[in-house]
Task: inverse folding
């Protein structure tokens, strides 16, 4: 599905909520900037684009902060460098505001219009999208406005509802959505559905896969085995990467339909994120500044797809200014988490030397070792992944391991890793980059499987979560959830490493804070203590 038409849809549908007026424009009585009605075919792609933007990897997406807290990325000079954020942090307020003010508002209009017109497939898709969004928001914030949200002047002080109650209702909403996409519909999504192209079978598979993911999320709160096994036996889950729930971006700049993270990070002048040295060492099998790497000695062939080194390896080049972490053998240069104001690189620019997020997470460039300086010389059209075949396989492996399903965790774990490599190759193929060979893939997977098959349950769980964390680069929402639920992967601890330049001053945040601007309008609502106030499924 080509994303280029999306931006026409977005601009048109966005006008529905514009506040600008054009008095006496051409002496007509209808304000062209505020149409009285917007077709379903324009509302649908608008909600899909804003959903992906709000959860994805860019400054406006939830994967921004979660990628840093999950030690895939690092950022200098911001509060999140030491697990600190607040109700004014842009990475908190931007996705919250977009989801409530734009996406969920548009979905409300879409549902009302679809029901009135008996366009039930649009109604079902809207319900499934809404369930996905609210599940993510509960996972981040715990208690959020739900039944009373987006009512406008009818209710300006909505109740923040219990996350468990919202989750319970979301399962019902998903079932209603599935039922509606199977009904005879006056109008049906087609090319305007920029995720699935109007394929209702894929929407059903995504909806069921979302339910399975949510059941795994709450498995510590109750027995979910019957529901899990029913979904597994239904045959209607995501079964291949062609059915992945993702938004495919384009590669044009006018209008700009490229991955938003690419637009930000590959601009001339340098990236805002550094790739975490901890992530680098986990994937390259090293362990120079921390106590334990379960993958020590195992080289991951996905490395050149994950980040791009602006310094060429082994050519005697010198990076700009003082360095914090630099491996001349590969050209990888970065800074440490937990090093604000004590790092030797503090205050120095590394914009033309630092490793930047590459082809796989946001459409950068495959690292062929040439050490080019970032200047919009990447690809740009890598999809924003949200729920994929490989992530579902890791979920199924976890459920099998803990006894919540009747499946084989060993077989599923291998399948999940194979699917993870296939996803990287899919992105590489689209960009014209080299493929990971089957021989290199199998060497890596066999090494990991040897650890898995010889490990106890906790070691197996750690390996599942570690591999899922690696594969998730570019969408860290699930990794943040997985860590809170399982304690894996093991993360870098600035107070327990071998460095004198890292100090962790805070505990790991177990939820997100509410935007201050909204709290100020809601009498009696208290801010979350992000280090103590866990979401309902986090036991």
Result:
């Amino acid at each position: 599905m080509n994303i280029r038409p999306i931006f026409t849809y977005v601009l048109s549908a966005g006008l529905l909520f514009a506040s600008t007026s054009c008095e006496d424009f051409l002496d007509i009585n209808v304000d062209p900037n505020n149409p009285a009605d917007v077709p379903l075919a324009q509302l649908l792609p608008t909600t899909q684009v804003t959903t992906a933007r709000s959860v994805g990897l860019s400054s406006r997406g939830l994967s921004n902060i979660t990628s840093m807290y999950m030690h895939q990325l690092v950022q200098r000079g911001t509060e999140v460098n030491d697990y600190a954020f607040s109700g004014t942090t842009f990475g908190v307020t931007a996705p919250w505001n977009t989801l409530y003010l734009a996406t969920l508002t548009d979905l409300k209009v879409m549902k009302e219009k679809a029901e009135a017109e008996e366009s039930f497939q649009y109604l079902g898709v809207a319900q499934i999208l809404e369930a996905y969004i609210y599940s993510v928001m509960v996972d981040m914030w715990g208690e959020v406005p739900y039944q009373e949200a987006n009512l406008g002047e009818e209710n300006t002080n909505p109740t923040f509802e219990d996350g468990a109650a919202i989750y319970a209702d979301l399962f019902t909403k998903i079932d209603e959505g599935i039922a509606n996409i199977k009904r005879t519909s006056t109008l049906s999504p087609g090319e305007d559905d920029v995720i699935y192209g109007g394929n209702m079978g894929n929407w059903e598979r995504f909806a069921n896969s979302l339910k399975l993911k949510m059941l795994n999320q709450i498995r510590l709160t109750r027995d979910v085995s019957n529901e899990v096994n029913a979904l597994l036996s239904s045959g209607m889950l995501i079964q291949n990467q062609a059915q992945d729930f993702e938004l495919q971006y384009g590669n044009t700049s006018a209008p700009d339909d490229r991955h938003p993270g690419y637009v930000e990070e590959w601009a001339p002048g340098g990236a805002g994120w550094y790739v975490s040295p901890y992530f680098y060492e986990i994937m390259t099998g090293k362990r120079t500044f921390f106590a334990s790497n379960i993958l020590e000695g195992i080289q991951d062939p996905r490395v050149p797809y994950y980040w791009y080194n602006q310094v060429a390896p082994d050519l005697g080049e010198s990076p700009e200014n003082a360095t914090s972490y630099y491996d001349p053998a590969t050209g990888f240069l970065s800074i440490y988490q937990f090093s604000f104001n004590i790092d030797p690189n503090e205050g120095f620019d590394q914009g033309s030397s630092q490793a930047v997020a590459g082809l796989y997470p946001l459409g950068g460039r495959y690292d062929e070792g040439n050490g080019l300086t970032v200047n919009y010389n990447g690809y740009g059209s890598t999809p924003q992944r949200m729920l994929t075949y490989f992530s579902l396989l890791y979920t199924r492996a976890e459920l099998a391991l803990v006894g919540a399903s009747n499946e084989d965790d060993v077989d599923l774990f291998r399948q999940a890793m194979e699917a993870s490599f296939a996803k990287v190759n899919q992105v590489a193929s689209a960009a014209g980059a080299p493929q990971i060979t089957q021989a290199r893939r199998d060497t890596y997977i066999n090494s990991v499987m040897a650890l898995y098959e010889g490990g106890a349950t906790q070691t197996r769980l750690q390996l599942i979560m570690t591999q899922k964390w690696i594969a998730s680069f570019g969408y860290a929402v699930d990794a943040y959830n997985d860590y809170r639920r399982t304690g894996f992967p093991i993360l870098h601890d600035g107070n327990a490493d071998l460095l004198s330049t890292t100090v962790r001053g805070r505990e790991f945040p177990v939820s997100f804070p509410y935007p201050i601007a909204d709290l100020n309008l809601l009498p009696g609502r208290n801010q979350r203590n992000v280090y103590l106030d866990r979401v309902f499924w986090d036991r």
Remarks:
- Confidence is low (pLDDT under 50) at residues 1-30.
- Residues 2 and 203 are 18 Å apart (CA to CA).
- The radius of gyration is 23 Å.
